[in-house]
């Protein structure tokens, strides 16, 4: 369970032209490195759309926990139906040792 201290609500947007090159992974690793140094005890990534398989795999590989779902969160380009979104949380350890996610 996430505690009720400081929690950044984070979102990374990677341009389509940069996707598939590890940019999201580098952003995530930088976030996991610096956030606890800035005093954050946990974080929330809201609205990770269910269609964004690469992002879902990344967050889960890095130890993020799916803590919620927003049914029909948005109508995305190329989809006729509303798309669900997941909410991911991360609890930083006192002595955080972040791996490279591989």
What average pLDDT do the residues reach? 85
Order of helices and strands: EHEHEE
Tell me the strand percentage band.
25-35%
Helix content: 10-25%
Return residue spans where pLDDT drops below 50 for at least 5 consecutive residues: none
Quick take:
24% of the residues lie in helices and 28% in strands. With 102 residues, it is α+β, with helices and mostly antiparallel strands.
Task: Describe the fold and architecture.
With 102 residues, the chain is an alpha+beta fold. The protein has a single domain, classed as 3-Layer(aba) Sandwich (Aminopeptidase). It contains 2 helices and 4 strands. It has helices at residues 23-37, 53-61; strands spanning 9-10, 42-49, 65-74, 83-91. The longest helix is centred in the first third of the chain and has 15 residues, at 23-37. The mean pLDDT is 85.
List keywords for this structure.
102 residues; alpha+beta; Aminopeptidase; four-stranded mixed beta sheet; 2 helices; 4 strands; 24% helix; 28% strand
């Amino acid at each position: 369970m996430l505690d009720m201290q400081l929690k950044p609500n984070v979102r990374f947007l990677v341009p389509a032209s940069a996707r598939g090159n590890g940019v999201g992974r580098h952003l995530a690793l930088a976030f996991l490195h610096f956030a606890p140094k800035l005093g954050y005890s946990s974080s929330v990534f809201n609205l990770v759309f269910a269609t964004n398989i690469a992002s879902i795999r990344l967050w889960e590989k890095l130890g993020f926990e799916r803590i919620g779902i927003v049914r029909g969160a948005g109508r995305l380009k190329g989809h006729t139906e509303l798309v669900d979104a997941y909410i991911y949380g991360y609890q930083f350890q006192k002595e955080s040792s972040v791996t490279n996610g591989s």
